[in-house]
Amino acid sequence: MKIEKHWGISLLAVLAIGPGLMLNTSLNSIREILQQTFNDQSYISITPVLIGVISFAFCIPFGPILRHKIGERRTYVLSMCLFLIGAIVSIASNSFLGMGIGRFFQGTGTGLALMMMIPMLVLSFPIQKRNLALLILIGGFYGSSVVGIFLGMLVNSYGHWRGLFYIAAVLSLLGICFSYKFLTNDHAKQQHKYHEPFDIIGVALMFMVTAFITFTLLNLQKSGWTSTYVWIGIVGSIIFLCFLFIAEWHIKNPLIPFRLVASRKPALAILIAVIGNISMSLTLLSLQGLLKSGSSFDKGDISLIYIGLFAGIVIVAILSAVLYDKVGPGVLGIIGAVIIMGVNIQWMYLDGHASAFLFVSSFAALIAGVGFTVAAGLMGAALGGPLPSLVPRMVTVQFIRVTVSAVIPVISGIVFAKVYKDNLMTVSAEGQVASKENFTQHLHVKSEIITYHTFSTFSCVLSIVVLILSFLMFLTGKGHKLAHKPHDKEKNKEKLSIEEVHLKKDTPVFERSPKEAVSNQVIGDSEYREALKKFGQPKPSPDKMLHMRDQEYRKALKRMKDIGQ
Predict the structure, then answer these.
(1) Is 195 helix (H, G, I), strand (E, B) or coil?
(2) How far apart, in whole angstroms, are the C-alpha atoms of residue 154 and residue 149?
(3) Per-position b or e across 528-553, b if 16+ CB within 10 A of its CB
(4) Which residues neighbour 339 within 8 Å (Cβ) at sequence distance 6 or greater?
(5) Each residue's pLDDT tens digit, 13-31
(6) Domain limits of the chain?
(7) For residue range 178-223, what is the model confidence (pLDDT) as tens digits?
(8) Distance of alpha carbon 335 from alpha carbon 376, whole angstroms
(9) In the record, which residues are listed under signal peptide (predicted)?
(10) CATH code at 1-185
(11) Assuming Cys at both sites, which of 190, 316, 336, 385 could form a disulfide with 369, CB separation 3.0 to 4.6 Å?
(12) Percent with pLDDT over 90 in the chain
């Protein structure tokens, strides 16, 4: 059976990125299991998650560069081999240090593949079907994170955490095998007349930023906010982040071109994606906690309840692909924010003693709501500027988003512990005054429930912020569309002979008759193709990128409207 290339590229993209995202979310929820396995209750237990995500963020800008140097297939196989080595090291690990080394290889492999595969995925689809790429991005990538949540729940219930890495290893092997069918190295053979200098300063500053962030989070996990090392790390992170921003703003060939996300739509999109992710983390922590501490469901029932996560993924993947071009990222963000807000308001006043149906519907609604904000944020940023600079703009967006995602779990855990401790003291005082009978039996459960309600309240506030940002994005317009369907008249082109088709392709537009010019392909795909070319070439100057205009794109849209009339 022949598989169309865009579906093959979609499969490779999910196999390259999905396992890394799956492990990032699953390992977050099984720290207690790992602590018991390695007999280590110290702050070091955060290292597998932290090192994996930080190395992931650091390597994102290098994927396009490697693709240009050695070709797409070699880059893909290299990234998957690194991930496979990391999985094997993690399986064989008997300590957090060993697992941290394995997670470094996994994060590196996933980071190299991310910004190579996303542009290839989008551009591999025919232009009239390009909205299906969003279906893969949401269903495959975001869905992989949700699969990680589900697998983390299974590990917490039944043990056998090494199975997560066996699954990841098998998926990486499949990716290597399929890459020889769908990828080539032709692109690496292209010769370029010029070579932009490599951004060594950017690499050095990126390393310092990620190193200080890692140092800060480790010490925060160890000693809390009162530690001098934490504040040294925070100050160092801010200073080097400022240096990185200034350097990348002025360097001719930056690894992370911050200039490209300085306009309104990309900046709003980044905030929507990041804040929506934080809101999901808090709400999911609240729902999982209430399900565990206050409910009377057994392990089997809890597994079925988590099916709601997958229902949410299916809903949001399909609706995002259908609605994005029709309503734009602003409306999608508004829909997602309203859904998240509704879920949080509902659970602000409910404890864990709720029906299974309510838990299932809440999980599904939460995942769907956050999925809409992810679609609005990522695609709004990607298509929120000139299309030739799509790839470097997305490198910047993904670096920021993934770096923030490394911080969220640690901060959430520290805040939860602090709020829980305060609530425990309050409940203890009230319980001693009211009645000493059965005092200790419900003390911790009640404190946890109050803490989860607090997190729901805070998440609700964040969803209101996302709602405001989405409305502001709506005011900036829909931006570029993903897919453009051909006009009926264009279908007659299939009847033209091969000679006529080649003649039309070889003849410049300005030399054709007006009728021929109008009957050209529905929408000129030049910007998308230019983006693909620049994806494999040294990145142009940020100053030039900023002044690129999509006049050809808009003229093509106007031409289509004229045809329709």
Answers:
(1) coil
(2) 9
(3) bebbbebbbbebbebeebeeeebeeb
(4) 365, 366, 368, 369, 372
(5) 999 999 999 999 898 888 8
(6) 1-185, 200-252, 257-481
(7) 998 888 876 544 544 445 678 899 899 999 999 999 999 999 888 8
(8) 10
(9) none
(10) 1.20.1250.20
(11) 336
(12) 28
**N residues, the chain:** 565
Residues 440, 456: contact at Cβ < 8 Å?
no
Could you write out the DSSP letters of every residue in 43-95? GGGGHHHHHHHHHHHHHTTHHHHHHHHH-HHHHHHHHHHHHHHHHHHHHT-SS
- CA quadruple 248, 254, 255, 261: dihedral, nearest 10: 60
Cα–Cα distances in Å, from 244 out to 15, 150, 268?
32, 37, 21
Q: Quick check: 179 and 12 in contact, CB under 8 A?
A: yes
Q: Tokens standing for 129?
A: 């079907």
- Reference 206, options 277, 258, 272, 267; nearest CA is 258
CB 339 within 8 A of CB 368: yes
Measured distance between the N- and C-terminal CA atoms of the chain, rounded to whole angstroms:
42
For the domain with range 257-481, which CATH number is right: 3.30.420.110, 1.20.1250.20, 3.30.1390.10, 1.10.10.10? 1.20.1250.20
- The pTM score is 0.80
